[in-house]
């Protein structure tokens, strides 16, 4: 078991699983530095041939409250925040390791986006999940993208257009999360899910990447691409 401490992200490698924990403060808010750290931690885990899955979680009773708006109001460059967020969210579907999110509390705004960008999500019963920007008169222009990839548009819009986050029960019913787990079992169940998600072994990398690539294709295009990927997989086995 090897822990690594950084400014706002802690990583721990145990067997084939790397746990990446946000430790950026009471609400685990996102700054460009935090998002870049998170990006680099995921990328480093993906580059490690011994790693099959990554668990994303956080300290405290909030998973992530979104962007650090106080820092933006104090002169932080909004473009830098947006650039770092887009860079992180683009990475997540491209890695070859399974991503499991253990939501230990509220996952709001961009925090909800990060959860939605993971493959599998467990959340504690009391968590609230969703964007809130519309409720304060702005639009979650970037944060809306991962929920749109995970949920039916009408379900995603229920949160996005009102700014009212989902309860854990609603998020489960509408497909934003996979399971609700008590807080004292969250990490243990996340590890079980991470192990289950990596059962494909060496085939996981190409398989996961193909899954996200095929989502954006038409039915016929996906089948054509699947045929070529299948042949490539045979040649590499």
Low-confidence stretches: none
- What separation lies between the terminal Cα atoms? 31 Å
Shape: globular
Q: Decide which structural class fits the backbone.
A: alpha/beta
Biggest sheet statistics = 7 strands, mixed
Q: How much of the polypeptide forms β-strand, as a percent range?
A: 15-25%
What Rg do the Cα atoms give? 17 Å
Number of helices: 10
Question: Could you give the order of strands across the largest sheet?
Answer: 1-2-3-4-6-8-11
For the residues shown, what is the average pLDDT? Answer: 94
Compressed to H and E, one letter per element, the order equals EEEHEEHHEEHEEHHEHEHHH
Give the oligomer, counting copies of the same chain as homo and different chains as hetero: single chain
Portion of residues within helices: 40-55%
Structure description:
With 237 residues, the chain is α/β, with parallel strands linked by helices. 44% of the residues lie in helices and 19% in strands. It is built from ten helices and eleven strands. It has helices at 32-47, 69-73, 78-91, 110-117, 145-150, 153-160, 168-173, 186-197, 204-215, 219-236, and strands at residues 2-5, 9-14, 17-22, 53-58, 62-64, 98-103, 106-108, 120-123, 128-130, 166-167, 179-180. A seven-stranded mixed β-sheet has the order 1-2-3-4-6-8-11, sandwiched between helices. Strands 5-7-9-10 form a four-stranded mixed β-sheet. The protein is globular. It starts with a strand and ends with a helix. The model has no long low-confidence stretch (mean pLDDT 94).
């Amino acid at each position: 078991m090897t822990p690594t401490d950084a400014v706002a992200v802690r990583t721990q490698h145990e067997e084939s699983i790397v746990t990446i924990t946000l430790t950026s403060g009471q609400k685990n808010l996102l700054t460009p530095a935090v998002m870049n750290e998170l990006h680099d931690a995921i990328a480093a885990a993906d580059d490690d041939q011994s790693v099959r899955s990554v668990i994303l979680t956080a300290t405290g009773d909030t998973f992530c409250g979104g962007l650090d708006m106080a820092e933006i109001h104090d002169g932080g460059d909004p473009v830098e925040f947006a650039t770092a967020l887009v860079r992180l969210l683009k990475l997540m579907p491209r890695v070859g390791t399974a991503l499991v999110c253990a939501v230990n509390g509220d996952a709001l705004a961009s925090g909800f986006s990060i959860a939605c960008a993971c493959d599998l999500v467990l959340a504690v019963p009391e968590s609230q999940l969703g964007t809130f920007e519309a409720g304060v008169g702005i639009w979650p222009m970037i944060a809306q993208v991962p929920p749109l990839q995970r949920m039916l548009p009408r379900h995603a819009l229920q949160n996005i257009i009102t700014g009212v986050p989902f309860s854990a029960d609603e998020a489960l019913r509408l497909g934003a999360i996979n399971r609700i787990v008590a807080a004292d079992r969250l990490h243990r169940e996340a590890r079980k899910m991470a192990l289950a998600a990596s059962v494909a072994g060496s085939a996981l990398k190409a398989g996961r990447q193909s899954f996200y690539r095929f989502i954006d294709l038409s039915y016929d295009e996906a089948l054509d691409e699947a045929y070529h990927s299948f042949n490539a997989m045979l040649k590499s086995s």
